[in-house]
Specification:
Length: about 325
């Protein structure tokens, strides 16, 4: 009985060892499955319009050797231009570009990078930068996120044989919104010329104002000399399109209103009444009676004398 128990224990140990061996053999391919990669690095960055930046095409052979490769990169030529390309640090030995490379096409937005080294690097070759690209964002480029895509990634091992299963990681760069330099637009809708407003009455000044970001405040002014100078009506008003104004005692036939709009960046836009409007006094002015000077009195007396003589003659004739 003891012999049977000992025998069963030995069989159990053998089975356990066999199971562990099977498990390890099943895991070993997983450990060895790290794929070679071609990537844009950094994978994302922020670049202002008009500024230059650098990005790399990097390659990790993942245990293979390295002899060289052929890479194509696609970019948006309407927002950036490639200035130069240099070989990266993955080339540990004598290296050179292939004929026609680097091929920079800043119209189509393509980049051809084909280079080789000799002697080749035996496995495991280290990962590193395959190419270093310097580019410039156009000064008028709109803000947004733009792609840097690897459209071809072919690399050879130490024997020049293709490295299979290369995984590609593309990149992006972001152009942030530039400073706001666009002023608000404003239109005065009333008074806009031809109105008759009486001193002391309440009148409504109206306007429209807009901005690409937003109007923060409104200032309102009026002129009594056709716009040569202005007086303040109100400042810091909300852009609600209307303001009730008590017409001041400044009668004039050449009045105008100006509305100024502000945005958060400090830009201003303004508009003025297209034509003059009139501010009348609260009561009509008295009629002016001209004073007669001595020459006028003498002339009037002469006229009256002629009329009197004419009447006398007329009466005598009737008799």
């Amino acid at each position: 009985m003891k012999k049977n128990r000992s025998k069963m224990k030995s069989i159990g140990v053998i089975v356990s060892v066999f199971s562990i061996a099977v498990l390890l053999s099943s895991l070993s391919p997983i450990v060895a499955m790290a794929a070679p990669t071609a990537s844009i690095e950094p994978n994302t960055q922020v670049v202002e319009a008009g500024k230059s930046f650098t990005f790399n095409v990097s390659f990790d052979p993942a245990g293979d050797g390295f002899a060289g490769g052929s890479v194509e990169v696609k970019f948006n030529a309407s927002v950036m231009q490639v200035n130069s390309v240099e070989l990266g640090d993955i080339f540990a030995y004598t290296s050179a570009w292939a004929p026609g490379s680097p091929g920079i096409d800043n119209v189509a937005g393509t980049l051809l990078l084909e280079a080789y080294q000799y002697p080749t690097a035996s496995p495991p070759a280290p990962a590193g930068s395959y190419a270093v690209i310097t580019a410039t964002v156009n000064a008028d480029a709109p803000s947004g996120v733009y792609n840097l895509n690897i459209t071809k990634a072919e690399f050879g091992d130490e024997s020049g044989e293709p490295i299979l299963g290369i995984v590609v990681y593309n990149g992006t760069f972001t152009i942030p919104a530039g400073p706001d330099t666009t002023p608000p637009t404003v239109t005065v809708t009333s008074p806009n010329g031809g109105e008759n407003w009486t001193v002391g009455t309440s009148q409504t000044i109206t306007w429209t104002a807009s901005d690409d970001v937003g109007v923060t405040s409104i200032d309102i002014y009026y002129s009594t000399n056709g716009g040569a100078t202005y007086h303040t009506i109100a400042t810091g008003e909300a852009n609600d399109g209307a303001y009730t104004w008590t017409v001041p005692n400044t009668p004039s036939t050449t009045c105008r209103v100006k509305v100024v709009a502000h945005d958060a960046a400090g830009n201003t836009g303004e508009d003025v009444s297209d034509g003059n409007f009139i501010i009348y006094s609260a009561a009509p002015p008295p009629l002016a009676v001209p004073l007669l000077g001595p020459p006028a009195i003498i002339a009037l007396a002469g006229i009256l004398g002629i009329i009197a003589v004419t009447l006398i003659i007329s009466k005598k004739t009737k008799k």
